[in-house]
Write a structure and sequence with these properties.
Helix content is 42%, strand content 13%. It has helices at residues 12-15, 21-24, 37-41, 73-86, 99-111, 126-131, 139-144, 154-158, 182-188, 197-209, 224-234, 252-266, 278-284, 298-303, 333-336, 339-354, 369-372, 375-378, 383-386, 401-407, 409-417, 423-445, and strands at residues 60-66, 90-96, 118-122, 161-162, 165-166, 169-170, 172-181, 290-294, 308-311, 322-325, 327-331, 365-366, 392-393.
Length: 447
């Protein structure tokens, strides 16, 4: 998403899942200075190949940047405080910036030597910032700690690599899910969360008959493209070639996905022209019974005292799948100029990953399997999503992909839902344009 697409009506909910476009839209040169993490690992003063997660160097101050400015902020603040109690030699100086500004400020700050040593970044930002040399490979950290796909899930683990090098350690997974008003379901006689297309259609018909004229609103913008991606994967399609050479969302699977979304409107389950985020506001105000949105909404709905439950998206296309993103920890070149800071940054990442059960309170699913399987996480509202984490899907690590998507796929979905174009035509036009933009990005980023 580019600055031109961020309207004043967009809430922080959208900023939780920003694509790589904000970083791509800033024409910054590659950052110089410092050593690669691999070079630092060979340094005589602190061999990182034996790193164990314990910092035993001198007192050091670590600059940590993140974008957790909303309800998740207090949970992160608490975790940082607990880390410093356990690691008294490391003083963490936190800088919290709105995600909308974060991905513009970080590259410039690192280039000037005034940025973070360590930070949290959305998974779909890693490739862009890796291509710009803002963040450095941390394969030595994952190797020394013995981390692998088995400690997380293969999908989220692999998505943190770019050009066969690892740039992120996952903190969480946050996905699209289905929320439903339990009072309305009970009133209409719907006894369980729909798990299939047929069950969802039956439930919506029953809810409509029970005096809820439009029980499931279909937005034409946010989070419509996330719904489309989920349905595309469910139908067996892929939105982009994994090597970043072309867009493939105009496949038969894509047409089926978008046609299903249009049918929700045509069948009268949704009003026409549902504006960005308004379906969530309407759900929160008890004007509809079902909505698809991110699990980060959990605490907001609890605060509103809404009677709701959470379930995975129904399997519409034949394969259980849903769009997801992830907050990952990264290290910048700035930290690699000082072996003590580099070691402290690695200690911080290791500790935060191991203690991420606290982060579940923010409505997220801890990415680390050993944490995810604890009773504390199993007792959360998002536990049904955690149980199906292997079905969650992530965009491929392609630099600049978020900006491409905002200019093409998002517009195609809106045009179809609004009835301006037929799904097949909308997707074909958008995919052609997306492929051209991806080819240009390949040249720009040297892919």
């Amino acid at each position: 998403m580019t600055d031109s697409t961020i309207s004043s009506s967009l809430s922080r909910r959208r900023l939780l899942t920003l694509g790589a476009s904000l970083a791509a839209g800033s024409a910054l040169a590659a950052c110089g200075g410092g050593k690669s993490a691999g070079e630092a690992a060979k340094g005589a003063s602190a061999p990182q190949s034996t790193f164990s997660g314990t910092y035993d160097g001198p007192q050091v101050e670590l600059s940590y940047w993140n974008g957790f400015t909303g309800g998740d902020g207090p949970f992160m603040k608490q975790m940082v405080g607990e880390f410093m109690k356990d690691n008294p030699k490391i003083a963490v100086k936190t800088n919290t910036v709105e995600w909308a500004q974060y991905y513009q400020r970080v590259p410039a700050a690192v280039q000037a030597g005034k940025g973070p040593d360590v930070g949290a970044m959305h998974l779909d930002q890693l490739a862009t910032n890796a291509a710009r040399n803002v963040i450095v490979p941390i394969d030595d950290l994952s190797t020394s700690l013995g981390l692998s796909a088995g400690d997380f899930t293969p999908e989220v683990w692999q998505a943190g690599t770019y050009k066969d090098k690892r740039y992120g350690i996952p903190l969480d997974v946050h996905s699209l899910a289905m929320y439903y008003n339990t009072d309305e379901f009970e009133r209409a006689g719907v006894t369980a969360a729909p798990k299939t297309d047929a069950e969802l259609q039956d439930a919506l018909g029953t809810l409509t008959s029970a005096s809820i004229p439009n029980p499931f609103w279909m937005p034409n913008r946010w989070p419509a493209h996330l719904m489309f991606l989920s349905l595309l994967w469910q139908n067996g399609g892929e939105p982009y070639a994994k090597d970043g050479t072309k867009a493939t969302f105009d496949s038969d699977a894509g047409v089926k996905a978008l046609s299903w979304m249009v049918d929700v409107v045509n069948k009268g389950f949704s009003p026409k022209n549902v504006a960005v985020d308004s379906q969530y506001v309407a759900f929160k105000n008890k004007k509809l019974a079902v909505t698809w949105d991110g699990i980060w909404q959990i605490n907001d709905l609890k605060a509103a005292k809404l009677p709701f439950a959470l379930a995975p998206l129904p399997n519409i296309g034949g394969t259980q799948a849903a769009w997801a993103n992830s907050h990952n920890f990264y290290i910048t070149k700035q930290a690699t100029a000082d072996d003590n800071k580099l070691n402290a940054a690695k200690t911080f990442i290791d500790w935060m990953s191991k203690h991420s059960a606290e982060w579940a309170g923010a409505g997220m699913v801890p990415a680390r399997k050993s944490v995810r399987e604890t009773a504390k996480v199993q007792d959360t509202t998002q536990a049904p999503i955690a149980a199906q984490i292997s079905s969650l899907r992530f965009l491929p690590p392609v630099p600049g992909l978020g900006d491409v998507q905002a200019q093409t796929l998002e517009i195609a979905v809106a045009d179809a839902v609004l009835g301006k174009k037929q799904p097949a035509a909308a997707l074909k036009d958008a995919a052609t344009q997306a492929t051209k933009l991806m080819e240009a990005n390949n040249k720009k980023f040297g892919a």
